[in-house]
Design goal:
Blueprint (H helix, E strand, L loop, with lengths): L1 H14 L4 H14 L7 H16 L28 H13 L14 E5 L21 E5 H7 L4 H16 L3 H6 L5 H8 L8 H24 L2
Antiparallel strand pairs: 1-2
Helix pairs in contact: 1-2, 1-3, 2-3, 8-9
């Protein structure tokens, strides 16, 4: 997908056409979340380049395979392959949302790591859950945040690190979690995520379901073009 993207950006810059960048973005996000480049890459790349170039230059209409809506039946709870377009696409959305430092609310650093929000560990009641490795349980963290989080339960990390850290900087905890595509409902589940709670697995599941809503809402914005 890198080759057609580079080619279309070149066309967009050369054309100077109104809305050209929006059209390239529209193609890009549809290609990611409709997984257009999982098979027949060369054929798809050539067809896409011709169709989108024609659209950019006003010689043709919007390609029919850009419906402007989220693919039906999308289920990110089972997206676990870090090399897949869907997994990478969600991480890209998180990066674009800001992915601020979870402890202090400061802008993220340049060196980021992918890690679990509900940590993986043998003693964790959610450790063997099928959604454990889902992209919905992942985010982008700088090294210092990842070390602070470690294997702590989300509730411990939230109350021992996140709240005091934001208290020092005056940053908004809500804004920080929003920058990781974590809504108030998902944040609440995270803040109550304790391995000692009798409903700990249910809390984990609530977090995953709520975050999926947040991710799908962000995807809907990108595809409404």
């Amino acid at each position: 997908m890198i080759v057609p993207l580079a080619a279309l950006i070149h066309v967009e810059r050369r054309s100077g056409a109104p809305g050209a960048r929006d059209k390239v973005d529209c193609w890009y996000w549809h290609s990611v979340f409709y997984e257009r480049y999982e098979k027949s890459v060369d054929t798809t790349a050539m067809a896409d380049f011709r169709a989108v170039t024609s659209w950019i230059l006003g010689r043709g209409g919007k390609p029919s395979w850009l419906p402007g809506s989220v693919p039906p039946g999308m289920d990110f709870k089972t997206v676990v392959d870090r090399k897949s377009a869907l997994y990478s696409g969600v991480l890209n959305l998180i990066a674009l949302a800001g992915a601020r430092n979870l402890v202090y609310g400061s802008p993220r650093g340049s060196s980021l790591q992918i890690d679990h929000l509900f940590p993986k560990g043998r003693s964790k009641p959610w450790a063997t859950h099928p959604w454990m490795e889902s992209v919905l349980n992942a985010t982008l963290l700088d090294e210092s945040t990842n070390k602070a989080k470690g294997k702590k339960d989300p509730s411990d990390f939230y109350h021992a690190d996140v709240l005091p850290g934001h208290g020092k900087t005056g940053a908004s905890v809500r804004a920080t979690f929003g920058s990781h595509l974590i809504s108030p409902a998902a944040e609440s589940s995270f803040a109550h995520g304790s391995s000692g709670a009798p409903n700990s697995v249910a809390i984990f599941e609530d977090f995953i379901r709520e975050r999926e809503k947040d991710v799908l809402a962000e995807i809907a914005k990108k595809l409404s073009c």
